[in-house]
Write a structure and sequence with these properties.
By secondary structure, the chain is of the alpha/beta class. It is 35% helix and 22% strand. Strands 1, 2, 3, 4, 5, 6 and 7 form a 7-stranded mixed sheet that branches. Helix 8 packs parallel to helix 9. The longest helix has 20 residues. The two termini are 34 Å apart. The relative contact order is 0.10.
Length: 449
């Protein structure tokens, strides 16, 4: 059985049924049970049309190894992390996150919500799935478990719900599983939820569940234009990522959210460590230092962020892509918890988000630009020679920094492309540096790198 195509850097993902069907998923379930060595594993699923049958196959594979299963039903990914953390058991979530409806996949974690990625066990799971271990003499017990109430209690124990009185939030669930959790959270808040597409529907009939794409925010922006809330939020398909829109209908970059949340935590625990990935704005590092914290850079990707958080005892971690991780949430990411923290920031600060954000956005950014090359790793390694006047590091691809600008160029894990991120004091500076890097990459490509 060839599984290389569906085992990615951080999860398992493929087209159903061409790459991922019940037989494959059952093998993966047996492999994960053997790999984890646990006596009980929690399993959740999103609302995709293929998720019930694939979750059943995953459960069958786990139980067939003699491992008991807590079937969590249709929930968000961060609810699986909550179960894994609070119940100290491995977890598996059947989801393809923001991929189109024809896709599905599996996210895995160990007890305590520890990540399972390419450098932390995922390749061993793949190897075991190629040649599954034999079934146990007796199947493991499967029981239905509801974690929603405990999950809501957990989130509301991190923020001060009473402080959120009077806030109005517009939330677009994208017909994903955010609709399972978001209304339940707001039932416990003195705030108003203005909901949009909160009915889970695996066909995703209104728009693609990927709020990173501007066209998928249009309905939320139209709702905000009518309702004039304090804040807008859009969730991806499994609700682990949240994307925010201010009262002026402008989206917040992940770096801005990271800086705002970091400052909030550092007011509560001065001197704490905050982790951010290396494509976050320099403003994140500056905010952490200004707030009395210790900034630590990480490679891009949740397994790296979580690993650095564990090593350093960090209170919070953020990625420019919209993943936000919390020490008090088992170092797991949660879009809904990030929404609650931003709501508390607004309640405490008193300024509109469109004004508050200006404190955290002194630079211009390019956004992520994909450059097609035949040998991404070789090209990234060679580009540094074109910028001898900059400070260089290779923590993740190539980063070249100057006093007022920087760029990062790193190979994709899944495509023959280089991903370029640039930051400078103004848009003209960004455009100039993008052009210089692009020219260097093209010259190397012509030379056959």
């Amino acid at each position: 059985m060839q599984l290389d195509a569906i085992f990615k850097a951080y999860d398992i993902r493929g087209l159903v049924p061409a790459q991922l069907d019940e037989a494959v998923v059952e093998r993966i379930g047996a492999a994960f049970a053997a790999f984890s060595g646990a006596s009980r594993i929690a399993v959740g699923r999103d609302c995709r049309l293929s998720s019930p049958s694939l979750a059943a196959a995953l459960i069958a594979g786990i139980a067939g190894r003699g491992t008991a299963v807590d079937d969590l039903g249709m929930i968000t990914t961060d609810m699986v992390y909550y179960a894994a953390g609070s119940r100290h058991q491995p977890g598996a979530m059947v989801t393809a996150s923001h991929n189109p409806p024809g896709w599905n996949g599996i996210k895995l974690c160990l007890a305590g919500a520890a990540p399972v990625g390419v450098d932390s066990g995922l390749q061993e799971v793949r190897r075991l799935a190629e040649d599954p271990p034999p079934s146990a003499a007796a199947s493991g017990e499967v029981r239905r478990v509801d974690v929603l109430g405990g999950y809501v209690d957990h989130l509301l124990g991190i923020v001060e719900a009473a402080r959120l009185d009077g806030l109005r939030v517009a939330a677009d669930g994208g017909n994903g599983v955010a609709g399972v959790a978001v209304p339940a959270v707001f039932e416990r808040l003195p705030a108003t939820l203005i909901g949009l597409y909160l009915e889970p529907d695996g066909r995703f009939p209104h728009h693609h569940p990927d709020p990173l794409r501007p066209e998928n925010l249009r309905d939320l922006e139209a709702l905000m234009r009518r309702e004039q809330p304090d804040l807008g939020v859009a969730f991806d398909g499994d609700a682990d990522r949240a994307f925010f829109v201010d009262d002026a209908l402008l989206p917040l970059p992940g770096s801005t959210v990271t800086a705002i949340v970091a400052e909030w935590f550092l007011r509560r625990e001065p001197g704490s460590t905050v982790v951010h990935n290396l494509i976050c704005s320099r403003a994140v590092d500056e905010t952490i230092r200004r707030s009395g914290g210790v900034p630590v850079r990480s490679r891009v990707g949740h397994s790296y962020i979580k690993g650095v958080m564990k090593e350093t005892g960090a209170i919070f971690g953020g990625e420019h892509s919209g993943h936000y991780y919390y020490r008090d949430n088992y170092r797991a990411d949660s879009g809904i918890l990030t929404l609650l923290v931003l709501m508390q920031v607004l309640a405490e600060d008193g300024r509109p988000l469109s004004v508050l954000r200006r404190d955290f956005e002194p630079y211009a950014q390019s956004g992520e630009i994909n450059l097609q090359v035949n040998d991404p790793a070789g090209a990234a390694a060679a580009v540094g020679a074109s910028f001898p006047d900059g400070e260089q590091d290779r923590l993740d691809g190539l980063t070249v920094s100057w006093s007022d600008r920087w760029f990062n160029l790193r190979p994709s894990n899944t495509e023959p492309v280089l991903r370029l991120n640039v930051e400078a004091p103004d848009p003209a500076g960004v455009a100039d540096l993008v052009a210089r890097v692009r020219a260097a990459v093209e010259e190397i490509a012509r030379a056959g790198a």
